[in-house]
Each structure stands twice: as structure tokens, then as C-alpha cells.
Amino acid sequence: MEKPVLIREDGLRRDGRRPDELRPIHIEVGVLKNADGSAIVEYGKTKVIAATYGPREIYPKHLVLPDRALIRCRYHMAPFSTSEHKSPAPSRREIELSKVIREALESVVFTELFPRTTIDIFIEVLQADGGTRTAGLTAASLALADAGIPMRDLVAGVAVGKIDGVLVLDIDEIEDEYGEADMPIGYAASIDEIVLLQLNGVLTPDEMKEAIKLAKKGAEQIYKLMKEALHRKYLRVLES
Amino acid sequence: MKNVSITPTKQPIIPSIKKETIKRLLKKGERIDGRSLDSYRSINILLNPIPKAEGSALVKIGNTMVMTGVKLEIGTPYSDRPNEGILQVHAEFVPLASPTFEPGPPDEDAIEVARVIDRSLREPRAIKLEDLVLIPGKKVWLIFNDLYLLDYDGNVVDAGMLSTILALNMAKIPYVNITSEENITIDRSTRIKPLPLNLNVVTVTIGIFEEDLIVDPCLEEELVLDSKITFAIDEYNRIVGLQRTGMKGIKTALFEKAMELALSKGRELHELLRKVLNNPENYIKRNLVIEF
Predict the structure, then answer these.
(1) How far is A73 from chain B (nearest CA, A)?
(2) Would B288 be classed as within a structural domain?
(3) Which of A1, A74, B199, B208 has the fewest CB atoms within 10 Å, i.e. is most exposed?
């Protein structure tokens, strides 16, 4: 396939978004019955569901940490989530992303409050259209909040990309594939901390500073939507 | 709970009194091994220690020792990139490198190191993959870049990246005899040309402890750090890769400080690379000399 035009003559993107505009975001919290906490997050066509269990007993026992909770995290893509069938066996990419998402969440969870237990986090990508790790991180952080796990802050994930030489917010799959850079960020807005940061691509130091600024702007908008979704859930509980 | 990312449990044990010492020193701007906050440990390099490999390099940063070997094979290109060679980066943390490493397939730490290095080469197109085609759409060179961690004392990424870029620079393509698509033979006794590269890349890992930044953390320091950021930097001072690791977030202002520090150290590492690659014969030894 030829490289498509990513920034149109009118300065807008293929799907009509401005460079600093997020895709339509849909968030729902408390969507699963069995899990202690759960959330669905959609960034445009990217659809992710996350669930948490715990704090609960650890098996096998030898993994127990005496001074804090163990956090286990699995980021996984459904075989039907991509254009071509994806093998359900965890790929090297999924193993790496499970690690960076876990470390992002460990940065905000008060693990020391639950020694000798485990908090398990499961993220399933149901449809992938770019930004699955960031949507997954957003969903996982909401699932932890839904489970009532004490955290220093919520984490919003968003990717900044560079396409046709322009820095843009929340890139989709085509923009990722044909763009020059993809920089996923996890940002805890209230405590102003970056908890996930990767870069796939090439940026100058000045572009990097701009990209971080843009990412924070996007993450703050998502953060607001996350809070609203949590409020909606508690209103629902109160009304029933 | 197979295939789940778990808080690393099996970490080397370090006495808490030592941890306290490291933290106290850092607060004073000092380090346990006497370095300043912004300096690397001594870096030692041996080129082509493994003549059977198409290219190889042994790099020691302090006590961390990584050997990288580049092997070239012939294979079929990816269907979406029919006119490009293939690069594969793998890392093995073999059990002889640390009392905490166990035999088995690469764990998430080894996978992460390999993928960070892979991206840092791929994204700026460090290797001219388009020049590695033997029969367009059918046969291309496969580059197997395997890094072997031999002794573990922290900052594996920087040592791994340095040995990788040196091994790739040393790699020579062997002569191939193509009679038909099925009949291609490699004559490894005759190496005809260097592996085509566009540019060199180094990584600089910055450790973060509270408000302080340190360059090239050793293992004992890694065990007390809040987090680390690895910057991949090319010879044009561009950032071609980033990876944050660790269990504590970082403020934006501190990130920008870390970036400036990394860029200045990146220039030093590129300077070192130039020095080594301008006179490679000074770094080639007959034997595997580990004590440089």
C-alpha cells in the first residue's frame, strides 16, 4: 500500500481531526460481574476491556512479598482484534507491554497497604486500531479504582505521534503505521507524574518537549472523562 | 499464572545498610564507587573476539559485560517488505551472569532490552535493509543480532547497545554464489563488504532518585533508584527511542533535565564510537582478553 496523505491540505487529519484532537472516547466502569473492578475503554475504533482481582491470596505461595502487594499484569490481544488473525500465544511485544503497564500502575498503587497479597490486572484488547497499550492502561487504572484499591492518582494513557512532520494527539493505526514517530505516555494528572513513556520513532529534542506538552494536554482531557465515568458508576449504585 | 508480568521477585539481595549508604551519598552528590553523578564507569571494548561470527564485539561498562555476535543467513523477506533484509535482535541473560538468573527462555527483562535496542536501530533506519536483497521479493539477508549478557552489574541496555552497534559496524557480508533461487551457497571464508549502515545509535540510561539524576547506574544503585529512563540517540543528536522503567513516576521538569543530560552523554559515546571505529585494529586481540 502507498503511504496515504496523513495531514490534508486544510491541516486536518485523515479522519477530520485537528492535530491536537482526541478520537471520540467512550468509558464505562464496573462492566463485569465476577471481577473486583473492571472497565471498558474505547478510543475511536480501539476497544479494550480490563479487570482486576484482589488484593487476594497468592498462588504459588513462594511469590509472596512480605512488605507489599505483588502486582501481576497481563496485556493480551484477542485473536480477532487485528486485521489478520493474531496467534493467542503471548508475543514478545505483549510481554514487554505487560511489563511497562505494570510498572506504570505500580507507580500509583499503594502496594504497601496489602502485604503478602496479589493484585491481578488483566487487559484484553478486543479491537486494535492504534493506542491499545494506552487505552489498556487507562482501562486498567479505572478497573483498580473501581475495585476500591487505594491509589495516589488515576493514570490516563495517550499516544502522541509525528505524521507528515506534524505532532498529533492520539494516533490511530494508519497514522502509526505511516507516521514518523509514536510516543505512548501514561500520565497521572493530579500529581503531575509521567509513569509510562516509550518512543517508537525519531524526534528532535525540541519536538520531544512539544510532544510531552501535547500528551499531557490529551491525558488531562481523558483524565476528566475517567472521573466522570467513575462518578456515573457510583450514581448508578446509589440509584439502584 | 503463566505468561503474566510479575513484580520482579528474584532480585539480588543488598543489605539495607548499603542501600542507606547509597541514598545518603546520592543526596550529597556522591556515589558508592566514587564516580560523579554524571559519569560513566570505565568502558572497555574488544572488537571481533568471535571470528566465526560475521561481526562481534565485547563491551564492558564497569563490571557489566555484554558480548554481541552478528550472524548473517539467507531467508525469505517479510511479505509486506519484499525488498528489504530482516533484522532480528535477541538478548539472552544467561545464568552464568548472575546468581539470580535461571536457565530458560528470555524473561520480560531480556525481552525488553532486546526490543528497546531493536526499535532504536529500526526507527532511524540505522541499517540499510534495502541494500540486503539478493533476489528481490524472494531472497534477502537475515541479520541475527544476539546479545549475550555475561556479567551483570546494572545498565545492561547501554552496554548491549554499544556492543550491538560495534558488532554491526564490524560485520562483513560473506560471498554468495547464486545459481538459481533454490541454489544459493554462502562462502563464509570470503567476506566481501561491510554491512551497510546509515548511522550509529547509542543509548544513555539515566537513573532517577528523588530529585537527583545519575548516569549509568550500577546494579546496587539500580536497586535503590525510583526509576530509569533510557534515551536512544543517533549521531545527529536526535532521540530515536525512549523507555521508562521502574516503579515510580517522573515529573516533567525532571524529565527535561534528564533529556539534556542524556544528550550530552550521547555526544561523548558517539565520540568514543568514532575513536574506536577509526582505528579498529587497536581493539582486536587474538585471545579473549577479559581483563583489559
Answers:
(1) 5
(2) no
(3) A1
State the CATH number of the domain containing residue B254.
3.30.230.70
Query: Is B116 a member of any domain?
Result: yes
- d(CA B216, nearest CA chain A) in Å: 19
Contact B238 A120 (CB under 8 A): no
Is the Cβ pair A197, B229 closer than 8 Å? Answer: yes
Q: Say yes or no for a CB contact (<8 Å) between A95 and B244.
A: no
What domains does chain A contain, in order, with CATH numbers? 25-239 (3.30.230.70)
Domain encompassing residue B32:
15-281
Please answer yes or no on whether B108 and A205 come within 8 Å at the CB atom. no
Instruction: Give the number of domains in chain B.
Output: 1
In a domain, B7, yes or no: no
Chain B residue with minimum CA distance to A202: B240
**Per-residue pLDDT tens digits for B135-154:** 999 999 999 999 999 999 99
Instruction: Search chain B and give the residue with CA nearest A188.
Output: B249
List, for residues A89-129, the tens digit of each pLDDT value: 999 999 999 999 999 999 999 999 999 999 999 999 999 99
- The pTM assigned to this predicted structure is 0.92
Q: Could you tell me if A73 lies within 8 Å of chain B, comparing CB atoms?
A: yes
Is B207 inside a domain boundary?
Answer: yes
